[in-house]
Description:
single chain; mainly alpha; two-stranded antiparallel ribbon; 4 helices; 57% helix; elongated
Amino acid sequence: ETMEVKPLLFVGYPAIGTQRLDMKKCYEAHDRHFDCLDSLRTKGDNHYECPTSFNNWLKNCDGLARRRQLENRYLRQRDERLYTQDSLADYNERNSSKISWPDRLP
C-alpha cells in the first residue's frame, strides 16, 4: 500500500488540499491587519474591530502561519515595553567594564 504524499511549500507550511499556500499574500494580509490593529491603539488585539482585514488574513494564511505571526507580534510588543534603547545602552555600558579580556590569546 502506498501513502499519498502532499507537497510542501517549505518546512512547516504544508500544502492546503490541492492548492499551495501563497506566503506573499499571507504576509501582505498580515501586514494590513496588524497595521489596522495598531492604528486603533486599544489594549489587546480585538480582531473583530478590523473585520475586512481580519477576514482577509484568515483567508490567506493557514492556522500555523497565523499562530507564528501572533506569537512574533506578542513577543515584539513585550520587548518594546520591557526594554528601551536608553536602558539597553546603560546596561551594556555598566556590564562591558566587568568583562576581562586576556592580553594575548594562547
